[in-house]
Write a structure and sequence with these properties.
Length: 237
């Protein structure tokens, strides 16, 4: 089965439609599938539900899809770095399903593992639990959360082979691995594409069985979300 496509647009060709759900990996701007996000933008698909820890920043990552008003709903845990995200939510233009970060990660992991729901103490007694079943276990209250599965999962990997086996690097190994298992169709952009067998089996983070399509993005731009520096005068002091 040929999994490698020449461009992100080709990898997504025929797969996007209005109203679908998309998972997008990354944490802040680290490990985001920027090339695939750009291809979604060019497709013009609208009314999207996007599952992601955050929505990038203004003008980068998922922020570009907010600019074009292609996202109807975000399922996220953090919105603090994107002014447009906040503006659209506060104006009622963008629907938001807010999750504690650990709960969001577990909802995605559960979806990929075929677990429809689970109970957690996080959020009990807060607005997070409103409208959700709450049950007592061993004298403690727990709120039920549903597992998440998306029509398409878009992930970014440092290295991948032609069979779709993936390796993530450092902080990019965040939401990408669990999202790769929770998409009905998973598409990966990889910085280094190698021949099948070149990745040590013990070093594979996502087995190729979860990945349907791959696009090689050798010069992926690494954005810095917040650049913090200090003067040479302070360093010498």
């Amino acid at each position: 089965m040929q999994k490698v496509y020449s461009t992100a647009a080709q990898a997504l060709a025929g797969q996007l439609r209005d109203g679908m759900s998309i998972m997008s990996g990354g944490f802040g701007l680290c490990g985001i599938p920027q090339a695939l996000i750009d291809a979604v933008r060019l497709s013009g698909a609208r009314e999207l539900t996007v599952i992601s820890n955050n929505a990038g920043v203004d003008g980068v990552g998922l922020g570009t899809l907010l600019e074009t008003r292609q996202i109807r709903k975000m399922i996220s845990s953090y919105v603090g770095e994107n002014k447009l995200f906040a503006q659209q939510f506060l104006s009622g233009e963008l629907e938001l399903e807010f999750n504690p970060q650990g709960t969001l990660a577990e909802r995605i992991r559960a979806g990929g593992a075929g677990i429809p729901a689970f109970f957690t103490k996080t959020g009990v007694g807060t607005i997070i639990a409103e409208g959700k079943p709450v049950q007592e276990f061993d004298g403690e209250l727990y709120v039920m959360e549903r597992g998440l599965v998306a029509d398409i999962a878009l992930v970014h990997a440092w290295k991948g082979d032609h069979e779709g086996n993936l390796v993530y690097r450092k902080t990019a190994r965040n939401f990408n691995p669990v999202m790769a298992t929770a998409g009905r169709l998973t598409i990966a952009e990889v910085e280094h594409l190698v021949e099948t067998g070149e990745i040590d089996a013990d070093g594979i983070h996502t087995p190729g069985i979860f990945v349907s399509r791959i696009v090689h993005v050798p010069d992926a731009e690494k954005h810095i979300e917040q650049r913090t520096t200090r003067s040479r005068l302070e360093e010498n002091a």
